[in-house]
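Quarterly update from the structural biology core.
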Amino acid sequence: MKRVVYLILFSFLAVVPIQAQMGAAISHYNNKKYDKAKEKIDDCLNSEKLKKKSKMWYYRGMIYIGVAQNPTSIYGALKEANPDAMFVAHDAFKKAMELEPKKRGYYKDSRKAMDAYLYPLAVNEGVGLYQSKQKERALKAFELGQTLKPKELVSFIYGGDVARELKMNDKYEAALKAISKFEPKAFSILAKKDLDKLTDPAAKEARLKKEKARYVGALVFLYRDTKQYEKGVAAVDEGLKEFPNDEKLRALQVELYVKTDKLDQAIKNLEAAIEKDPKNVQNYVNLGIIYEKSGNAEKAEETYKRCLKVDPDNYNANYNMAVLPYNQAASIIKEINDLTLPQYNKKGKKMEAAAAANFKKSLPYFEKLEKQKPKDGSILRPLGQIYNFLAKHAKENKQEYATKYKAIEKKISGE
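Predicted structure, tokenized:
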């Protein structure tokens, strides 16, 4: 009997120091002595009983956050000796939550700690590691941020950029696909300077959409550059549902349609859609853009005119009808500027007349657009350039064009 008693007593005495480690770890943590806290909480892993307590795992997570956050100047080589401290913290919090299936105890504390402390730590560590040219570790940190807060954009943006630089196309693709699912308003963190300068809500919305479209385009470019053309077609078609007027996406669509032998079929599909629903003006616009980007300006113009018969004030059709001849005129002017004096004397005047004819063709559409958006610089600037050119090179009404040019310039300058 005595031997049994001694064995039980010995066993009891051996367990007490192990259980006391958690209290000591918490005490050191509260006093911000993270080196000693880490030593004690690590010892807790030797106890099967403590390993079943969510409290132990929660404090393990908090202590390792402390290890990861604090500078070497205070805690010596502690942080450098534990480069994966924040990942250890993440695993600890997850374990604490697993041990609370009814979401009691330290479940909520662990969830809160991951959101409030671990997420910003992961992002900041990622930035610091990237700046110190440790890109692989930076990417790992940003991926942790993505796991912790999948509805926060910044870690996907940073992680995607690093993956692109590392030429890890699979991770870059995953980041871009996640980014494309965010609403445009989430992109305010990337366009803050521009947004601060804008007062018109519509202009702000357009700026945010432009920022998102840039990342949608990046995904399509990735598929194109890696010759995943079918994926590219699916991505660009999806992107154009949200951004039907994005010129870069539309150009990529045509390019990918050509590479996948789908251009003719796309045209047939849109013509069929128009025949089925002739009042759906967006189908005309989309078809016109496809013709335009594929180099068939004549068919594009014809299609935009069809659209304007249905909806004379359609902004996109009017804009594209304005831009087609405007770009042709601008191209001619560029050629004129490259002429030598003898060349100009030979054909310069004839080329100026051709440019003027195209500007005149463009003019009524830009004037209609100005009435719709009287303060839009993207309308006022080309309109002013048309008036200025015609004031110098038109055969008639030069003074009228000159007067209109001055009025436009005052609008642009805000007088």
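Residues 248 and 365 are 23 Å apart (CA to CA).
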